[in-house]
Amino acid sequence: MEISLKGKVAIVTGASRGIGKAIALEMAKSGADLVVVSRKIADLEKTADEIKAMGRKAIAVAAHIGRLEDIATVVAKAKEAYGKIDILVNNAATNPTMDSALDATDRAWDSIMNLNLKGLFFLAQAVAKVMKEHGGGVIINVSSVAGVTPDILPIYSISKAGVNMATKVMAQQWAPYGIRANTLSPGQTKTQFSEALWGNPDIYKVIMDRTPLKRIADPQDMANAAVFLASDKSSFITGQNFLVDGGLSI
Ligand SMILES: NC(=O)c1ccc[n+]([C@@H]2O[C@H](COP(=O)([O-])OP(=O)(O)OC[C@H]3O[C@@H](n4cnc5c(N)ncnc54)[C@H](OP(=O)(O)O)[C@@H]3O)[C@@H](O)[C@H]2O)c1
Questions:
Q1: Are 34 and 51 in contact (CB under 8 A)?
Q2: This prediction's pTM
Q3: Distance in Å, CA 73 to ligand 1 centroid
């Protein structure tokens, strides 16, 4: 099956490293032009340069997705550069704490919910308004296996369960405008974000015991799924949660 994103414009948040970078590069390889977003511009420019080296267009926008004014900047710059937005990958997220539910603080709650859920929703809302003007588009919200099974990151898990519902709401309410929305839920993936988990031999063993396919995911596993969900090959799929987790959730 050949998947093409030729002529499409995609915004990918958290594209300076890890899963977001892999998704941005795979989308470019499939023909899309990109808006790559994260807070720190230096690594982001490297992603943009790799995309341009493939012959695609890319702009790098430094933005904190937890801030509404930064969200407005991202959408304005995308419109200015390309005149439209076809694909949004809401990938940036945070988890600054390993506290248990008994020890969790409201400060951690605010920081996690602000980016993982509020920023994700309001970026999607701003992009959906542009997609509506141009006949539709595709939203991919990156959640986690932790959004369907509680794990050792309690507030993060709650935020990701919220992401799963946000996707269903978007899919239902924006379908009349030609917008599809799906959730991509990674299992343990080899990135900086989760190194404290897969890098810990005891936790690594628990993950392996629970994962039928017996490996940690590579960011490329997520990129392959994201390109399918962004493409016309998934044109009748909306509101679904794709668990790319080697079977961990079962
Ligand atoms: N890795 C895993 O095992 C795993 C498992 C399940 C789900 N996930 C999910 O997959 C997604 C990507 O995770 P990852 O592992 O690739 O993480 P990562 O390697 O830590 O990358 C996170 C990216 O998000 C950006 N970012 C962080 N805070 C931001 C903010 N406030 N505004 C804009 N950008 C921000 C970072 O760049 P800057 O620092 O420059 O902002 C970076 O580009 C997340 O939604 C995560 O919850 C990951």
A1: yes
A2: 0.98
A3: 20
